[in-house]
Amino acid sequence: MTAPEHDDLGACPLFAGLAAAELAAVAAGAVERRLRPRELLFLQGDPALELGIVVAGRLKLNQIGADGQELIVRYVGPGEICALVALFADQLYPVSAEAVVATRVRCWPQPALERLMLEHPRVALNALRIPSERMQESPERLRVVATDRVAQRVARSLLRLARKAGRRSEQGVEIDMPLSREDLARLAGTTVFTVSRLMADWEAAGLVAGGRERVVIRYPHGLVAIAEDLAARQRDEPEAGPRGRED
Amino acid sequence: MTAPEHDDLGACPLFAGLAAAELAAVAAGAVERRLRPRELLFLQGDPALELGIVVAGRLKLNQIGADGQELIVRYVGPGEICALVALFADQLYPVSAEAVVATRVRCWPQPALERLMLEHPRVALNALRIPSERMQESPERLRVVATDRVAQRVARSLLRLARKAGRRSEQGVEIDMPLSREDLARLAGTTVFTVSRLMADWEAAGLVAGGRERVVIRYPHGLVAIAEDLAARQRDEPEAGPRGRED
DNA sequence: CGGCCCCTTGAACTGTGTCAATTTTCGTGG
DNA sequence: CCACGAAAATTGACACAGTTCAAGGGGCCG
Hints:
The structure is a homodimer of 247-residue chains. With 247 residues, chain A is α+β, with helices and mostly antiparallel strands. Chain A has two domains: 9-138, Sandwich (Jelly Rolls), CATH 2.60.120; 148-227, Orthogonal Bundle (Arc Repressor Mutant, subunit A). Helix content of chain A is 37%, strand content 23%. Chain A has seven helices and twelve strands. Chain A has helices at residues 20-28, 110-119, 121-147, 150-165, 181-188, 192-204, 220-227; strands spanning 31-35, 40-42, 50-56, 59-64, 70-76, 81-82, 96-99, 103-109, 166-169, 172-175, 208-211, 214-217. Chain A has a four-stranded antiparallel beta sheet. In chain A, a hairpin with a 2-residue loop joins strand 11 (208-211) and strand 12. The longest helix of chain A is centred in the middle third of the chain and has 27 residues, at 121-147. The model of chain A is unreliable at 232-247 (pLDDT under 50). Chain A binds chain B through residues 63, 65-67, 69, 71, 73, 84-85, 87-88, 91, 94-95, 117-118, 121, 124-125, 127-129, 131-132, 134-136, 138-147, 189, 229, and chain B through 63, 65, 67, 69, 71, 73, 84-85, 87-88, 91, 94-95, 117, 121, 124-125, 127-129, 131-132, 134-136, 138-147, 189-190, 228-229. Chain A binds a DNA duplex (30 and 30 nucleotides) through helix 6.
């Protein structure tokens, strides 16, 4: 696994600004959990007992609706937080968290967090900033899903993944985790079939390369163009191939 | 205007748990703004200088995308907060806020809020709870938009409005503010035309009654059925008319 | 080697957006 | 009070993106 490890609590926005001694105390309150691929950290609907920070590996957060429809909310990588809900007592996890690869997560039990926030107001303020920022992008994403066409959504999803979990290879940027067409579909809110067709088109155009649960982005610029609807209409005329490196 | 007034700061989740004297101090820091219909409280992209709590009336928060696409994020009624972003320095409003009727809003300037949170940690904790809760419903709404069909989304939007801004009349539940088909479309992420057709069908089925910028829900149960996809497929067979009151 | 899962491809259907034309409603000013 | 104009809403025709369903290929692991 070439994925980076992330062990520095001070770098986590939640604990930013705490003194070394305090950080040590915080670290002492955590439990480390190890998950094998496909193993669940927690289940949607269960009481939220712990907040987690990923040390190494990756989690997939997905939500399942009353009708059985499933949506991948986001992926959580090293250094990122999941289950902010656990900051408060008596909440339920709104999503399930599943490891996509072998994953290590530092977990803080809910009561410890409450104590922490009372003793260090700084932590509460930090905590406030995180969901607040996420909330700003939230309507943005909603608008995108509501109004953009599928090709744009899929392209956007790929680019986002590339930023968060991309690894440079001589082929281009490879998404550094198993990512099936189905995952991509559930991330973009569409079906496997449409994703498959899109990927086939893009592969023919030289934008991406794929395999079983594997995606490589060879020409990010082209995907950006699609995401921005600059070239969304033509499925026939490839119009752009990888020329030079212009990242 | 039959709309309720909302003047009690203690009832607002942001200031819950403060002593009477503290509340008085808080109240002293606010400015009251009066808006006429269609007047703007703030504009998307402007620096977030103030947080507001609606006293009377109603605000419409809408976001406009790079492509010009417009989406109504939510309506803000008496007692509700808007522009939580203003809790932090150097943020931009992610949406625009427009009064849909004559509206009064209590506004707190950003620096005052910062002082408040430092002096009363309680306020910071309260503040944390709000976006945190909203974040939980956020993926929910995303999933709905991504996977549900338009009829369901519109039905859901109507029901949500009825809960927040509904007024009982002998006809049923009337949405107590001017609400055009266009508004409804932008709220549900669709077009005026589709909304118009749906409303026509539902009116024929006796579920709703409408007029220019006016909507009355005569048979909420029927809308719920549509929202839950129990009867989404049939546009011909009405299948349910208002029989008795079974709210 | 066998079976499972992932992926692909084709064909048919359909929900929804797009566009243009008309009607209805309301507010304003003569 | 009526007439006018603007904005909102309706309606029909049409196109097409994307889903659905069915069938088949291919790779990976036990």
